[in-house]
Each structure stands twice: as C-alpha cells, then as structure tokens.
Amino acid sequence: HEASKVPTRLLFYESSMSSEITEKLMLENDLHHALDNQELFVEYQPQINLQTGYITSVEALVRWRHPEKGLISPGVFIPIAEESGLIIPIGQWILETACKQVKQWQRAGLPSIKVAVNLSLGQLFQYDLVRMIQDVLQRTELESQYLQLEITESMTINIDHMTTMLHQLKDLGVTIAVDDFGTGYSSLSYLKDFPIDCLKIDRSFIHRIQTDSTDKALVDMILSMAKHLRLKVVAEGIEEVEQLSYLIASHCETVQGYLFSKPLLPIFLQENYDSIQRNAQNILEKLNVVE
Ligand code: C2E
Ligand code: MG
Ligand code: MG
Ligand code: MG
User: Fold this and answer.
1) How many Å is the maximal CA-CA distance in the chain?
2) Residue ranges of the EAL domain (predicted)?
3) What count of Cα atoms within 13 Å lies in the side-chain half-sphere of residue 217?
4) What is the rounded distance in angstroms from the CA atom of residue 287 to the CA atom of residue 250?
C-alpha cells in the first residue's frame, strides 16, 4: 500500500504540471489573435493631487476579454506576452491607444492630463523603441509632456543600455517613473544614472501603513529620498482614509487607489470626470486639506 501511494502522487503532480503548461500554451496561442480580434482594451485609473483634489494624470492598464475564459488580468497575460515576443505589437498598441485617448479627451475639452504607460522588459530591448514612441506621439499628435513611461527596477539589469535609452526618451520630452519602487531587490545606484522624474510607492508598503512600523518607516524613507533627489512621488493602492491621512501628513504629493477610483473605461471616466474630482475633494475636505 505504501508503494502504491507514491506513483499516484507523482502522477497527480505531473498531470497538474502539464495542464498548467497546456493552459499557458493555449493562452499564448489565443493571445496571438487577441489584437486582431479586438479583445484587448485599456482602462484608465486617475491619479489625484492631494493639494487640489484634481486629477493630474491617469495610468493606462490593459485588459484582455477572452472569448471563452472571460476577463484575464495583465498579471497573467503580460508575462506570456513577454515570453512569446507578443509584447512588442501589444505594447505598441497599448501606447498608441493611450496617447490617442488622452488627446481625444483634450479635444473634448477635458483638462489636460498626463497618461502613464507601463513598459515591460522586452520592450526596453526593442531596438527601435525610441523611434516607435516618437512615431506614436507624432501620429496621435499628443504633446510629449503628457506622456509618462513607467519602468520597474527589474529593468536596471543593464545599466549602460538603460541609461542611454532613457536619455533618448527624455530627449523626446516624455517623463519617466519607477513603478513598484522598493520591491525590486536592486541597488539604488541606478538613481544616479537614470534620468528619472517620479517614484511610485508600491501598494504592498501602503497596505499596512497605519499598523506596521516597518512599512511606515519604508514609506517615510522613500518620501524623504524623493524630496532630496527632487523626484515626484505617487503612492499606489490607497484604499482607506487612514492610509490617505498618513500620506497627507507625510507630504506625499499624488495618490492612486480604489479610495478615489478604480481603473475605468474611457467613456466612463470622461462622463464622470467632474464627480470623481468632487468626490476626491470631499474626502480631502473632511481631512482639512482642501478648503
Ligand atoms: P502596476 O503598473 O503597478 O499597476 C497597478 C495595479 O494596481 C493595477 O492592477 C491596478 O488596477 C491596481 N490597483 C490600483 N489601485 C488599487 C487599490 O487601491 N487596491 C488594489 N488592490 N489594487 C489597486 P492591474 O491592472 O491588474 O495590473 C497589474 C500589473 O500588470 C501592473 O502593475 C503592471 O505591472 C501590469 N500591467 C498592467 N497594464 C499593463 C500594460 O499596459 N503594459 C504592461 N507592460 N504591463 C501592464
Ligand atoms: Mg504601473
Ligand atoms: Mg505599481
Ligand atoms: Mg505591479
């Protein structure tokens, strides 16, 4: 009996492994058609300035509506896009969609806001990335000052390449933010070389900011470092008023999180722009920030 248990467990292990791989291969196969079939779309999450309650920018976040499997999150399919090389066409489509959208909002008379677009590692090794971005800005007629590119610390593996690339991007007039700052186990020395404008404090630090003294210390450290380096800061994942009041007391400039708004479809954001801002101002008024 003892002996018969082992193969069963092995079999179970193997079959669950292979079904995971099969699942991934099927998704990759489907992802090849997702762009052509118009299954990808972009949502936009507002970033709120804490002094005014105004929306200053939005982050573009891609989604995949799979015909059978329903909504698939970017946490699942972006890595598949990376491994398969599909990130190149998909990344370009996201960038173009986001720039077009923000330009359209400008034309519709909304206040001019920035759009932050996530870049992934594979894109940074795309030989014509800078040209591609320049072309997209030209085609969409979006002024480059309204585009922010988000990179992560995992992209600091090749400092020389990144330094050159980021300077070329900066020459276009776009700004650069470091996403998920503090989660990448990388040396901070890249902050000396990279022309960075903004740090985004990861949601994992914000989560227990009121109760965990380590998280509190880390957030304080990031804010003070940003101040000394003259970088802007966006705190991500603000869900509760208590988190917000801590960030206000610590002079954080901008926040993004469900407390103010989830990522929204463009039409919904456009139609509710004023009420999102009014709601933000109400929340801030109660904390005695906005008069
Ligand atoms: P990220 O760039 O750090 O994006 C922030 C994530 O936090 C988004 O998840 C957003 O919906 C979520 N979020 C924002 N506020 C809150 C909050 O208050 N509470 C909670 N629980 N979550 C919040 P999402 O859209 O699922 O994206 C996950 C990750 O997938 C992104 O993390 C980014 O790394 C990647 N991603 C998303 N869109 C794109 C894209 O267009 N291109 C690339 N390359 N990566 C993308
Ligand atoms: Mg991001
Ligand atoms: Mg992030
Ligand atoms: Mg992330």
Assistant:
1) 75
2) 24-277
3) 3
4) 14
Which atom of ligand 1 lies closest to the CA of 43?
25
pLDDT, residue 187, reads 80
Q: Whose CA is nearest to atom 22 of ligand 1?
A: 237
The chain-wide mean pLDDT, for the chain, equals 92
Report the atom number in ligand 1 closest to the C-alpha of 150: 2
**Tally of CB atoms within 10 A around 119:** 22
Integer Cα distance of 79 and 184 in angstroms: 16
CA-based torsion, 148, 150, 151, 152: positive or negative: positive
> Per-residue confidence at 159, pLDDT binned at 50, 70, 90?
confident
Alpha-carbon torsion angle 86, 87, 88, 90, nearest 10: 90
Which residues, judged by CB distance below 6 Å to any ligand atom, belong to the binding site of ligand 1?
A: 45, 60-62, 73-75, 78, 94, 118, 120, 179-180, 203, 236-239, 256-258, 263
Mutation probe of ligand 1 site: the residue of 35, 64, 71, 78 with most atoms within 8 A of C-beta: 78
Predicted confidence at residue 3, as pLDDT, reads 47
Here the ipTM equals 0.97
